[in-house]
Amino acid sequence: HRPWPGLLAAYRRWLPVTDQTPALTLCEGNTPLIRSHRLSEQLHANVYFKYEGANPTGSFKDRGMVLAVAKAAEAGSQVVICASTGNTSASAAAYAARAGLKAVILIPDGYVAMGKLAQAMMYGAEVVAVRGNFDEALAIVRELAERLPVTVVNSVNPFRLEGQQTAAFEICDALGRAPDHLCIPVGNAGNISAYWKGFCAYHAAGIVGNLPRMQGFEAEGAAALVRGEPVDHPETFATAIRIGRPASWHLAVAAVQESNGGIRAVSDDEIRHAYKLIAREGVFAEPASAASVAGLLQLHAQGVLQPGETVVCVLTGNGLKDPDNAIQHSDRAPLVTEASTDAVQTALERWL
Ligand code: F0G
C-alpha cells in the first residue's frame, strides 16, 4: 500500500525537481475525473469534469504553488508574495505555512469570495486589500519585487506553469489519450498555457498520440483576449476571473492557435446557468469554474463539438469557496418549521 505522494514526487521526472528541492507537499493533485452523465447524453459526447476543487486548498493553484514555493525555499527565499483574486492567495498562504516561509498577498478590496479570504487569514498570510482590481495589484507586486527581498509566486513565476502541467498529465493518464477538446476558464491565462505545455510534453514523449483543441473561456465583462486589447475595468460576478490584463497573453494565444482551438466570451448569465447545472449533478464548483461548461454549451450550439467526441471541462475551484454566490443563486431557501414531526410533514407535503 502506497499513499498518494503529492505532485513533486509523482511527476518528478517531468518537473525541475532536484535533490536540493525540499520535499514539499500537502498531497495535492490526483483529482477526480468525473463523467458528466447528463451533459454526455445531452450533447452526444463523452463529457468529463476535472474536479480541481478536490485539491488541498480547493483549487488548481496548488499544482503550481507546491513547486513555486519549494523552489523559493530551495533558493533561500524567506518571503513569497502574490496578487490574487483569492485562490492563488489561499494556496500561497498554505504552502508558505507548510514550508515555514512568510506569505504576503495583495487582493482587490471587496472582490474576493469569503472562503478564500478565510483561508488566507487562517494560514497566517499578511493580507493587504488594495482599493483597485487584480491587474493593479499584480503591477504593484511586480514593482515591489524589485525593491524587496521577496519571491513572486504569481503565474509569471515559471515554476507555477511547470507544476500546473500535471493536470494535463493526469487527464491523459486517466483516459489513455488526450481529450478532443479541453474546455477551461481563462483569467490571467496561466492555466490554459500550462495545460497546453503538459499535453505537448506527453505527446512529444509518445505517451499520447493526439492533442486536444484548447477551448478557453473568458467572462464577457473581462474578455481581453477575445477583444484583442486589455480591459481597464473588468467586471463579472465570477470574481476569480475578473481580470483585464492577462499576464500570459502570448502563451495563451499560441496554445489556442497551435491546437486549432479558440478563446470565446461567456456572459454572466451563461456562467450562472452552468454553475447551477453542474451542482445539480452533485458537483459543486465556484462560479469562475462554470465558465468551462458554459463554454462547452456554446461549442455545442455553434456546431464545433462533433458527436462522439471526448471533452474535459476543468472545474478550477471548489464551490465552498464562495458561499455568498451559492446561497444567492440557489432556487430554494430552507423551509423553517416548528420542531415537531407534524409541522415538518406538513411543510414537506407541498414539496413531495
Ligand atoms: N478559475 C479559478 C477558480 C481561478 O481562481 C482562476 C484564477 C482561474 C480560473 C483562471 O486561471 O488565471 O490561470 O487563467 N485565479 C487567479 C487567482 C487569478 O488569483 O486566484 P488563469
Automatic annotation (TrEMBL):
InterPro entries cross-referenced by the UniProt entry: Rhodanese-like_dom, Ser/Thr_Dehydratase, Ser/Thr_deHydtase_PyrdxlP-BS, Thr_synthase-like, Thr_Synthase_bac/arc, TrpB-like_PALP, TrpB-like_PALP_sf
Residues with PTM N6-(pyridoxal phosphate)lysine: K61
CDD domains associated with the record: Thr-synth_1
UniProt entry tagged with the keyword Amino-acid biosynthesis: yes
Xref: Gene3D superfamilies: 3.40.50.1100
Cofactor: pyridoxal 5'-phosphate
Keywords attached to this entry: Amino-acid biosynthesis, Lyase, Pyridoxal phosphate, Threonine biosynthesis
Statement: the UniProt record of this protein carries the keyword Protein biosynthesis: no
EC number from the UniProt entry: 4.2.3.1
Catalytic activity: O-phospho-L-homoserine + H2O = L-threonine + phosphate
One Pfam family matching this protein: PALP
GO-annotated biological processes: isoleucine biosynthetic process; L-serine catabolic process; L-threonine catabolic process; threonine biosynthetic process
Residue span, Rhodanese domain: 79-123
Single GO MF descriptor: threonine synthase activity
Chain residues that bind pyridoxal 5'-phosphate: N87, G187, N188, A189, G190, N191, T316
Pathway: Amino-acid biosynthesis; L-threonine biosynthesis; L-threonine from L-aspartate: step 5/5
Family assignment from sequence similarity: Belongs to the threonine synthase family.
Function: Catalyzes the gamma-elimination of phosphate from L-phosphohomoserine and the beta-addition of water to produce L-threonine.
Protein name stated in the entry: Threonine synthase
Species assigned in the record: Alicyclobacillus macrosporangiidus
Phylogenetic placement of the source organism: Bacteria, Bacillati, Bacillota, Bacilli, Bacillales
